[in-house]
Amino acid sequence: SASETTGVFVPKQEDYQKVYNEIAALLQDKDDYDDGSYGPVLVRLAWHASGTYDKETGTGGSNGATMRFQPEGDHGANAGLVTARDFLAPVKAKFPWITYSDLWILAGICAIQEMQGPTIPYRPGRMDKDIAACTPDGRLPDASQGNKHLRGIFGRMGFNDQEIVALSGAHALGRCHTDRSGFDGPWTFSPTVVTNEYYKLLLNEKWNWKKWNGPKQYEDKTSKTLMMLPTDMALVSDKAFKQWVEKYAKDEGLFFKDFAAVITKLFELGVPFDETTQQTPMTLKPTAN
Ligand code: CCH
Known about the structure:
Layout: H1 2-6, H2 13-29, H3 39-50, H4 70-73, H5 82-94, H6 100-114, H7 147-157, H8 161-168, E1 175-176, E2 185-186, H9 197-204, E3 207-209, E4 218-220, E5 227-228, H10 230-237, H11 239-250, H12 252-267
Antiparallel strand pairs: 1-2, 3-4, 4-5
Helix pairs in contact: 2-6, 3-6, 8-11, 9-11, 10-11, 11-12
Bound molecules: ligand 1.
Ligand 1 binds next to helix 3, helix 8 and strand 1.
């Protein structure tokens, strides 16, 4: 085999499954966080690593893990993601052969699957880049904006309206933190389970401006414990976005299918898979729990 002749370790699917299992076990063990899971912040790390992609210049994207370096790690949008990177440090120490770039995406996939989401195919092959590859600030979305901004930012990555709405369903997970983004609270009542609740709440709840000193955000009329960002509300005030919100609210199976496809596309933006890397996507097995 290649590894015997060259002495270079060539990881196989079973090796990536070991990394997956390690992350899944850590997610089980370290439940001292937010709503009991680091899962949501791992998903956000993988998204912010990928969402810097610019299709015109081919810069940014998950191939590089440049958020390790200060300029990018310190971008306002990345506040708090050091928590996710630190969570993965012992995994990187145990499996030093995996690049940070591949590890962060594998962790995002693991978190989605372990939080009962759809199966996401995984392809390794990302290379870490150095500090010079850090992207400029401002490539990730600004939550205080509306539909035009969303189409601008996600269009730059190569996504259409349907894909923007499908990706946004990730806000079923996790919460906002006043010491990170300034916003506060979760979007759904089950922030550690992948569901289509985000779309249902967008349509079925009544949303009012929250009366507080923080940045402008919405709160639900019924419980006053849930939140929506201005960008979330743009998905129902814009007619073209709203038809997809309605479809995903009605059909969780359709959401799972479209979410799996679009998150795979997001995680692979700008990744130059070549013949020497494993081209066939692998399915990593969720732990039974
Ligand atoms: Fe998001 N997101 N996101 N988001 N996001 C925040 C938290 C999460 C925007 C703004 C915010 C996506 C799209 C958008 C997650 C996944 C995705 C927060 C709170 C803000 C603000 C951060 C904090 O305070 O900790 C905006 C604007 C957009 C525009 O579309 C997409 C796409 C994804 C993934 C596919 C997840 C998960 C979280 C929860 C993180 C946590 O720590 O709980």
